[in-house]
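Reply to thread "Modeling small-molecule complexes from scratch"

Following up on the discussion above, here's a worked example others can learn from. I took a protein sequence and the SMILES for zinc ion and predicted the complex. Inputs first:
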Amino acid sequence: MKYKYDKKVTAVNTKHLYSAEEINRIWHENKNNPVIKHPEKGWISPWELRQMHEGKPCPICGKIMVYGEKYRTNCKRDAWLSFPKYNNDIPVVGDYYYHPQYATIDHIINKARCPELMFEYRNLRVICMACNLEKGDSNIEDLERNLEETIEEAETVLKKWQPL
Ligand SMILES: [Zn+2]
């Protein structure tokens, strides 16, 4: 059965998703649906969130991000002629070649790990495509953060149990 958008795509039903394939499908099928609650703009779609960051610096590399049809094309030749190269290549996602600074959405906590935060505004940040590809699905950042938290927690507990 094809998943249909309904207004209740929120923490309530996304937390019951387990398969990575299903999580990705729901993320992609909701690109144009108002599923993100922006603190000022109200309900917006993931594409609208990306668009809002056009002309703003990428929080990772600091380069100005771009958005819109001008910055993506399904013609490889056009892409090679007009877009700067990223690692001597042009980012390709699906059928499109993208400008390396095209605005994309990154999940701070991976959506496969925590599907209930998939559309949570605080878990999303807009970064450029080159940085997003660099980050990949490796989650190294995520793991490093967790490691730091675990060490901190362990230290707190150990301090508590030190002999008086
Ligand atoms: Zn970047």
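What I'd highlight from this example: Residues 109 and 142 are 7 Å apart (CA to CA). Residues 58, 60-61, 63, 127-128, 130-131 surround zinc ion (CB under 6 Å). Questions welcome below.
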